[in-house]
């Protein structure tokens, strides 16, 4: 797995960390042995010197182990932090190279989770692996081995108990995993009802449905309660059972140990040591389940991350003959363009052809799902067409350098997406080296300058997280400013004025006329469309009609209906009469 | 162990919630409770309902703590009294006793958990239900003044916090304390001298821990901040990927990410390294005390002060001794955050309920739907919209359109009419009766609402429409859907009326949601109708359907419309033009146009371009 190979450059540090951990472990495993020496050779033989020497050795070893542990902390932390860093870097770089087809495979929220929680998860697992995770199984095995070295006949009892408990533990974990999954579903349900109720509280109050909702909630809550209790009780049973089994093993050790001591075949110190090993094993068992959990989580995280890293980036390398031409006039032509989203069957655009002259404003109208936004996404090549061609200044856009193409375009998406940072940073997002003058002009033209002036620190005001919250309309205007500052040859407005009142929108559209840009604007409002040089009426992915407002008003019944719904019957008569 | 097992699920849950709630549930790190003295008794008042079982749990905890201590002690006895002296029958008796103790110990452990889980789950159940009920009784201003994410966080995270603490921490804390006291007691009784030797490590431990935590606290805060910043950046850029690509900014965002990534690595390294010292410190102290017991114990044994058995017992106890200390410091933090969580839940429970209907408030029956506002004034406490001296009269069946810029007070008037808020001055009359004297429920029973953001809950389409009138038959629902122009799109869905609406309402467009909410209102068939037209852009075809359906819905009802579409306004019997909380102009569409005032201006800004 690629997730693991990222660790490669840190082989040496990993080896050192593991070695240091083994030192620690060795000390811990030696201690019961040493205490046996003290008892058998010191106390039983009344030899003070032996007690002092071995006692001193034990203290010395403890300090060694401490030194090893502390150094281990450095190495483990170094490895894991670098690992996390590199993993994030790989992922993010990969994601930046993604085409939009790739993005369709992973919803944004899932990508974010992979980059945040999953990476942290992996990083912690690496850290813990280098410190305790390997230690627990090694301690159990080591403890067993040591017991066998000291007294094989006594060690047998522990050797029987450990695998039995291990299997038992695995069984409970598996069972528990399934149970907790259903608990999770129950909890999601409870929280879901809660969420619905919070967002719909006005309607619920208005329709007097509180009692109904409380009943729904209580049902879900009750189910959650009983399932949680059941799952937890199962999990909590493991500890008492584990203890009981190990304790019984210890009893056996005691009994047979004393028999051996009686017959002269065993030493008390050895007996004490074996008992000490078994209690150490017992307490290690209790973190075992935690380790299994952590590993299975890491495995899941790892494969989620691998999914991303192994994704093949399938766009958008331009074909061989690249035309290098950073400057355009802005003439756009669609020639028989058809398109469907990768992984779906439905054709969202069928045989679309139209032409927009440089500096023209083209309005695009149509129902939701008719394909307007898809049409927009093809122009900066966020997706590639299936059939037909899109030409910019007569050149096929798939042969242009992607960077040049996109730099000529100012896209304002439907949902105004701003980034955390100052107002200025958000505007200059469109053009890093924009001058103060350019920023001001684009803010004025997008009708946001007044709002900015009223902010506490004007252009330096922070927005987004920990900053000022802007209204929907303000966000829209700011994202228009971001596009305008680039003085784009092509301006794509994807219904980006929906939250503006008519007056502001009018001013905005007026200001746009001074830009030497070809403007394509998706809109639902006739009032906006009327301003355009040309209106495209799209239905079910096909270009239904093309023309000026007056044309469409006469020729298209759909357009008439829309007009009527927005302005009323009388206006329609009035408007037609005017013609 | 329990914690270890349920933790991953909580982790996953956290992601699910975050993703679903979107409205960033604020993460709180171990916040401290403000008022322990008030919060603890209240938590107790929940637990007190389970007094009987709680005593049983306590009994079991005491029992298991004692039995847990008795085990090693008896092993020591076995070595001293029977193995060293080779007394087999005595040993056998003692081992039988030990077996009984072990069985009892495990049983006590099992039962204490069994009962405690029951108590915890019952407590959390009643807390949740109570909270939910209470939320329904809270007045609308409560919801308007708070962020949705914040309430969600209380309801979900804080209660979860309480739940997991009750499940495991309570028992752990009690048993840690008991074990600690018991261990020290036993050790003192066995050999004060050797105890003193063992306890040497305690001050070292405290000093060491202090040294470490004084560094990690700051480092962790910094790491957390850097991580938050980095994750925030990732979230933003990934969800804004379209913009990043369209503006060709890939390299720039990568560079910025690496910068933040670097910072995180730096602070993370030290935080992790230092915090990694803690278990190492506990280990070395364990080992040291073990060595001390062996060495000093050996010396003492040679002098006949202690026996070998005592050394064995001490060796076991010393390990039981550092663990509870460690546990306690961990559990203390969990407990703190749980109390803080409980306090935040109680804060919601303490919010005042919607004022109870006054004594003698009457039912409303046989309403005609005549509405009158007399000199009504109102202001929200914290700024916001204000309305002043609003007076108007609507006859039964009339349509009143409210027009004006954002913040003019349109929504406020609707809020007052439905008694989501109560007017500060003036009076509102329905059929000539003051609405303050009418029961809220009874008033709203006669009102129907179609709001901007239609509330759909997870369930079938059928259930969602039936929400308007719970006793409606399937046929009634379908009839309403037909009238609302919703029938045709519903039947096109895979499962028709049985289609499940997802929690986030996906799969159904905004416009279609509107149609469903109109169907709901048609089914409810109220006398007074409140409409808040959607501003968000709905495609033109659906928009036409909505207009048509609304038109049908409004027939014969007194309707109040917050209007954004000229078409709706033109058809209204009466238009109230609002600005800054006052009625600026009123009259029919034609009247107002003749006045050539504010309305004229508004109207023309939509039409002028056509004429000009």
From TrEMBL, chain A:
<protein>
    <submittedName>
        <fullName>ABC transporter ATP-binding protein</fullName>
    </submittedName>
</protein>
<dbReference type="InterPro" id="IPR011527">
    <property type="entry name" value="ABC1_TM_dom"/>
</dbReference>
<dbReference type="InterPro" id="IPR003593">
    <property type="entry name" value="AAA+_ATPase"/>
</dbReference>
<keyword id="KW-0067">ATP-binding</keyword>
<feature type="transmembrane region" description="Helical">
    <location>
        <begin position="12"/>
        <end position="39"/>
    </location>
</feature>
<keyword id="KW-0472">Membrane</keyword>
<feature type="domain" description="ABC transmembrane type-1">
    <location>
        <begin position="15"/>
        <end position="297"/>
    </location>
</feature>
<keyword id="KW-1133">Transmembrane helix</keyword>
<dbReference type="InterPro" id="IPR003439">
    <property type="entry name" value="ABC_transporter-like_ATP-bd"/>
</dbReference>
<dbReference type="GO" id="GO:0005524">
    <property type="term" value="F:ATP binding"/>
</dbReference>
<feature type="transmembrane region" description="Helical">
    <location>
        <begin position="241"/>
        <end position="257"/>
    </location>
</feature>
<feature type="transmembrane region" description="Helical">
    <location>
        <begin position="277"/>
        <end position="295"/>
    </location>
</feature>
<feature type="transmembrane region" description="Helical">
    <location>
        <begin position="132"/>
        <end position="150"/>
    </location>
</feature>
<dbReference type="InterPro" id="IPR039421">
    <property type="entry name" value="Type_1_exporter"/>
</dbReference>
<feature type="transmembrane region" description="Helical">
    <location>
        <begin position="51"/>
        <end position="70"/>
    </location>
</feature>
<feature type="transmembrane region" description="Helical">
    <location>
        <begin position="156"/>
        <end position="173"/>
    </location>
</feature>
<dbReference type="InterPro" id="IPR036640">
    <property type="entry name" value="ABC1_TM_sf"/>
</dbReference>
<dbReference type="InterPro" id="IPR017871">
    <property type="entry name" value="ABC_transporter-like_CS"/>
</dbReference>
<keyword id="KW-0812">Transmembrane</keyword>
<dbReference type="Pfam" id="PF00664">
    <property type="entry name" value="ABC_membrane"/>
</dbReference>
<dbReference type="InterPro" id="IPR027417">
    <property type="entry name" value="P-loop_NTPase"/>
</dbReference>
<feature type="domain" description="ABC transporter">
    <location>
        <begin position="332"/>
        <end position="565"/>
    </location>
</feature>
Automatic annotation (TrEMBL), chain B:
<dbReference type="InterPro" id="IPR027417">
    <property type="entry name" value="P-loop_NTPase"/>
</dbReference>
<dbReference type="InterPro" id="IPR011527">
    <property type="entry name" value="ABC1_TM_dom"/>
</dbReference>
<feature type="domain" description="ABC transporter">
    <location>
        <begin position="371"/>
        <end position="605"/>
    </location>
</feature>
<keyword id="KW-1133">Transmembrane helix</keyword>
<dbReference type="GO" id="GO:0005524">
    <property type="term" value="F:ATP binding"/>
</dbReference>
<feature type="transmembrane region" description="Helical">
    <location>
        <begin position="91"/>
        <end position="111"/>
    </location>
</feature>
<dbReference type="Pfam" id="PF00664">
    <property type="entry name" value="ABC_membrane"/>
</dbReference>
<keyword id="KW-0547">Nucleotide-binding</keyword>
<keyword id="KW-0067">ATP-binding</keyword>
<feature type="transmembrane region" description="Helical">
    <location>
        <begin position="54"/>
        <end position="79"/>
    </location>
</feature>
<feature type="transmembrane region" description="Helical">
    <location>
        <begin position="196"/>
        <end position="213"/>
    </location>
</feature>
<feature type="domain" description="ABC transmembrane type-1">
    <location>
        <begin position="55"/>
        <end position="337"/>
    </location>
</feature>
<protein>
    <submittedName>
        <fullName>ABC transporter ATP-binding protein</fullName>
    </submittedName>
</protein>
<keyword id="KW-0472">Membrane</keyword>
<dbReference type="InterPro" id="IPR003439">
    <property type="entry name" value="ABC_transporter-like_ATP-bd"/>
</dbReference>
<keyword id="KW-0812">Transmembrane</keyword>
<dbReference type="InterPro" id="IPR039421">
    <property type="entry name" value="Type_1_exporter"/>
</dbReference>
<dbReference type="InterPro" id="IPR003593">
    <property type="entry name" value="AAA+_ATPase"/>
</dbReference>
<feature type="transmembrane region" description="Helical">
    <location>
        <begin position="290"/>
        <end position="315"/>
    </location>
</feature>
<dbReference type="Pfam" id="PF00005">
    <property type="entry name" value="ABC_tran"/>
</dbReference>
<dbReference type="InterPro" id="IPR017871">
    <property type="entry name" value="ABC_transporter-like_CS"/>
</dbReference>
<dbReference type="InterPro" id="IPR036640">
    <property type="entry name" value="ABC1_TM_sf"/>
</dbReference>
